[in-house]
Structures are given as structure tokens and as C-alpha cells.
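Title: Prediction job returns without error message
Component: structure pipeline
Severity: low
Priority: P3
Assignee: unassigned

Description:
Job completed but the reporter wants confirmation the result is attached to the right record. Sequence as submitted:
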Amino acid sequence: MSEIMADKKLAHPEMDILLYLMDNAPFEPWQRDILSIIRDEAYYFAPQGMTKIMNEGWASYWHSKIMTGEVLSDTEIVDYADHHSGTVASQPGKLNPYKVGIELFKDIEERWNKGQFGREWEECTDFEAKASWDKKTGLGKKKIFEVRRDMNDVMFIDAFLTEEFCVRHKLFVLQFNQRTGQYEINTRNFPQIKKQLLFQLTNFGQPIIKVVDGNYEGRGELFLDHLHEGVDLQPNYMDETLKNLFVLWTKPIWLKTVMDGQEKTYKYDGAEVKEG
């Protein structure tokens, strides 16, 4: 890789790619204005992105409580259950914020209702005792309202995602297998699962990619670097992104990343995406 990289790099890699394009791409003034509007809108909605799992989980939690309480008749419950199950369904390779959010809120409520928290709970090593643990503290509702008021998604996952929760809800790290075209379980290791989930939430579930060179090899080509933290880029998304960037930059786009455990560099020159 050192043979590929040129000497001309940004003093500091730029994570705000839209801003870099606004300042450096060969745009007409009206094109720059449109990109500015898109960027401003993205930053406007960023705070909502920081609580997406909590927002969707909270809405699903109360929707379920209300609809299965006094609102629906017996004949309407099945229709509601059908729609609700579709909302919280999980797909390979995708994090469903509705599913994770509602299940975590329900888990917190149950744990605080039974007193499954605090030093005594954490230090207990008796499996049978923990399985039947119920102090009847009844603090569940109070706790979920407190969590909803004070936390964002990163804090929510960091504080309440437990190994028991991951096992119960089959939360694994998945990796895309290009040979089979399927997502496959890569690890069941809880610390790694939690680390990767927290990492993904720091950028709203999107890969972190930075501009490192806007004049690569002196040809005015754009070189990007993907900060890889155990999750490979999805090939079809990567290809389409490089193609769209080419339209804006008008010159070849390079991307350094890791695929299947190997460092690789890809290039799109207007014809096809290929390894550089």
C-alpha cells in the first residue's frame, strides 16, 4: 500500500466529505448551493440520529402497550400483531432499531421490577439464584422513563446491552460472504459484538470514510480511506457510492478499505470498479 500512496495528502484527513466536495469539486455555483442544502439538512437531523434506537423502541413499546390494552377488540388483535411483527422483524446484516429498542426497554423494565441490578446482583455467581431472582422492587416504569429522559443511543447500548440479552435475542456479528452472497455469523463474542455496535452508532450506522488526498499522484484524483472496525463495506453500496462520487468529482475515485481480512484499494475511473 505504501507504494500506491503518494506524498500529496491532506494535513488532516477530512471526515466531512460533502464539505470537502463543496470546497474543492468543479461545481457551478448552483450545484454548490444544492449540495449545501443537502449537507445542512443532514446536520439538522443528526440529533435525531443519535437517539434513533431509543425513539423507535419507545414508540413501539407504548404502541404495543396501548393496542393490546383497552383499545382493540379481540378480532382486531390479530391484525395488529401481524403489522407489529413485521415492524420488529430482523434481517441478516441489518440492525432493526425498532426491535433492539423495544426489547431493551422491556428488558430494563423487567430487571428493575425484579431488582436485577446493583452490586448484589452483579456479584452473584449462583446461576439458579439469578434465574429465579425477584426482589419485587417494582421500579421498572420509573427506570425506563429515567433512561428515556437522560440517554442517547450510545449510552443506552453501553449501559444496558448485556451478554444475556445478546444470547436471548441472537445478536451476533455478521459478515458478508461474497462467494455465497449471504451474511454469515462471524462471531458470538459478546465484547466484540458490543464494541462493533457502539462503533456503528457513533456515525449513525454509516461507515466512517475520510478524504486523505484530493490530488492523488498529482492527477487531481480523490483518495478516500475507510476506518475499518471489523465490519466490511457492502460491495454493491461501495460500488454505487464510488460511481456517484465520480459524477461529482469528475475524476477517478480511490478507496482504501479491508475486505475479508485483507487491506485492499478500489478504483472507479468512470468505466468499472476494480482493485487498484
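Comment from assignee: result matches the submitted record. The chain has two domains: 17-48+204-275, 52-201.
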